[in-house]
Amino acid sequence: MLNQQTASALPWVSRVSTLFKATGPGILMAAAAIGASHLVASTRAGAEFGWQLAWLILLVNIVKYPFFAAGARYTAATDESLLHGYQKQGRGYLMLFTGLNVIAAIASTAGVCMLTAAMLTQFIPLSIDVLALIVLASSLALLIFGHYKLLDKMTKIIMLALTLTTLVAVALAFNRYSGFGTPVVSESPWQWAYVGFLVAMMGWMPAPIEVSTWNSLWLIEKRKTQTVTAKQAIFDFNLGYVTTALLAIVFLALGALVMHGSGERFSDSGAVFASQLITLYSQVMGNESRYLIGIVAFLCIFSTTVTVIDGYSRTLDMGWRLLSHNTSPRSYLTQVMLGISALGLLLILFFKGALLPLLEFVMILAFMTTVIFAWLNFRLMTSNTLAKKHRYGRVMVGLSWIGLLYLVSFAILFIYWYFTK
Question: What's the number of domains the chain is made of?
Answer without folding.
Answer: 1
